[in-house]
């Protein structure tokens, strides 16, 4: 039987309501030179000193351009990448300090839905083996019980339970992503990182997968970190939204606050690119076009990372990196221009 977890009220900001706390997290990938005697000559600063909380039962959307560090953030939180520095507290325990069996046991509570449903499923394994693997690894079921659990998981995600004996190549992209969701649910997690789970799917299928994720969250009391760069989807599914640029979190707020009152120039530029279905409103809207290319994370600019493209940058922006601070209750922004 799949466990149904009680949902927790997320409107409060109490300390005991935080499920995941990220503190000064960094993930640098070394740049090496040499064939036989390799030496490090630099580092790609994929995640560069970020901090945020995720409350129980909520969905935190993480948005930004491709290459800004969103997926690396998700993988580092789950310890698929070990961080360069910082801490990740899950249920009050620092995952960075866990190793071996202790970390493996904790991973039962944390799962990931991967971006590409074609690459994330082993083509040599049946669907039943793919979904049942977490149950075997964590010792949750075997034999007849495992077979019944796999069938139940397939029903939960809207697939025929008799598909368990088929292989991934026999399914469409949307069906494969549902199999990935079933695999993530197998160990009864409380926290799921959804890494752009709909970006590789047809538009007609995207809504089905989003609705499935929402239904599962309500049914099992799940907490999501939802990574995407489709801002309209993020607004639909998220309770709060964090905006990321070049390894930094530049703004965090509730979804309505962020979309109606964006404070950071980068957030304003992102939202100006989202089409509005009303032609009259769309015709009057002013689009903010950013000049220049995204700087390299191996050599980010001094001061604010956004200063090379910011339309309102001034002297201090080129010297001092702004800290993420609370500008209004629940609304955090890293910008020298924001009072």
Notes on the protein architecture:
This protein has 339 residues and is of the alpha/beta class. The protein has a domain at 15-109 and 189-287: Rossmann fold (3-Layer(aba) Sandwich). The protein has helices at residues 70-77, 100-107, 127-137, 143-156, 173-185, 203-220, 231-237, 255-260, 265-272, 279-284; strands spanning 18-33, 39-55, 59-63, 85-90, 93-94, 110-113, 191-195, 223-227, 240-245, 248-254, 325-328, 331-333. An eight-stranded mixed β-sheet has the order 6-7-8-3-9-10-12-11, sandwiched between helices. Strands 2-1-4-5 form a four-stranded antiparallel β-sheet. Strand 1 (18-33) and strand 2 (39-55) form a beta hairpin. The termini are far apart. Residues 5-14 have low confidence and may be disordered.
Structural descriptors:
single chain, 339 residues, alpha/beta, Rossmann fold, eight-stranded mixed beta sheet, four-stranded antiparallel beta sheet, 10 helices, 12 strands, globular
Ends apart, CA distance between termini = 52 Å
What is the third-level CATH name, the topology of the domain at 15-109 and 189-287? Rossmann fold
| Strand order, sheet with most strands | 6-7-8-3-9-10-12-11
The CATH architecture of the domain at 15-109 and 189-287 can be given as: 3-Layer(aba) Sandwich
Q: What radius of gyration results from the CA coordinates?
A: 21 Å
Task: Count the E strands.
Answer: 12
Q: Tell me about the biggest sheet? A: 8 strands, mixed
What's the SSE pattern?
EEEHEEHEHHHEHEHEEHHHEE
Number of helices: 10
Which strand-content bin applies to the residues? 15-25%
